[in-house]
Automatic annotation (TrEMBL):
The chain crosses the membrane at residues 73-101. Keywords: Lipid droplet, Membrane, Transmembrane, Transmembrane helix. InterPro entries: Oleosin. It holds the Pfam family Oleosin. It is found in: Lipid droplet; Membrane. This is Oleosin. It is a multi-pass membrane protein. It comes from Hibiscus syriacus. GO terms for cellular component: membrane; monolayer-surrounded lipid storage body. Belongs to the oleosin family. GO terms for biological process: lipid storage; post-embryonic development; reproductive structure development.
Length: 155
């Protein structure tokens, strides 16, 4: 404790260390809201469990109809969502290709150009190597055929 703290009256020390009324109001509001929401979630859970208990006999009686109907609805909805997703992907791809052909530089065009140039360069290199290897094989074939003819003539 400093000397200034010792000279202050006790009420002033308590006033400075006490929380502000705004902080207390925030805490009380948050606590009230939290407790209310917790109570409502408990009521909702209780109501859901009671409704499930009451509906179980009906679900068991109608399950031969409800299960296939539910599966059919699930498959139909899944099919529509999948076809819609494919349509969005196709439209996006066609739009991207249109902008690329128009020269409007869509997102990823630099990477595509780099990959295309790299592929073309690799193809040229492989073509050159194939030509060199073909010439090498032809040269070796001529050497072998000349060597073979000379061997037959000496006999």
């Amino acid at each position: 404790m400093s000397i200034n703290d010792q000279n202050m009256p006790m009420t002033q020390k308590l006033y400075e260390s006490a929380p502000y009324s705004r902080h207390v109001a925030k805490f009380l509001t948050a606590s009230t809201l939290g407790v209310t929401l917790l109570f409502l979630s408990g009521l909702t859970l209780t109501g859901t469990v009671i409704a499930l208990i009451m509906a179980t006999p009906l679900l068991v009686i109608f399950s031969p109809v409800l299960v296939p109907a539910g599966m059919t609805v699930f498959l139909v909805i899944s099919g529509f969502l999948f076809s819609g997703g494919c349509a969005v992907a196709a439209i996006t791809a066609l739009s991207w290709m249109y902008y690329y052909v128009q020269g409007k530089h869509p997102l990823g065009a630099d990477q595509l150009d780099y990959a295309r140039n790299k592929l073309a360069s690799t193809a040229r290199d492989m073509t050159q190597k194939a030509k060199e290897y073909g010439q090498y094989v032809q040269h070796k074939a001529r050497e072998v055929s000349r060597g073979g003819q000379a061997g037959y003539q000496s006999l």
